[in-house]
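#lab-general

N.A. 3:47 PM
ok so I finally got the sequence cleaned up, no stray characters, all 75 residues accounted for. can someone with queue access submit it? mine expired

B.Y. 3:52 PM
send it over

N.A. 3:53 PM
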Amino acid sequence: MWKKVDSYAIFWYDATRMANIVFKLEDGLTGRILELSIDEVGVITDILRNEKPISYHTERRDLLIGWEPTGEAED
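B.Y. 4:20 PM
back already:
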């Protein structure tokens, strides 16, 4: 089920050189994307910082960026 992402935290583990991202969802539950490389976490962090709205699928662990009009410029 898709749920709106309200906030997130990024955990970097130097020993394994991997990251986990934990999302706080609109209903108070959490979601996770685990074992990301430095490149992957960089891309997802950019999305989380710059796009709205963002939803998380609680079963598939997917992210969805909301629909935007074609040609829309970023602020």
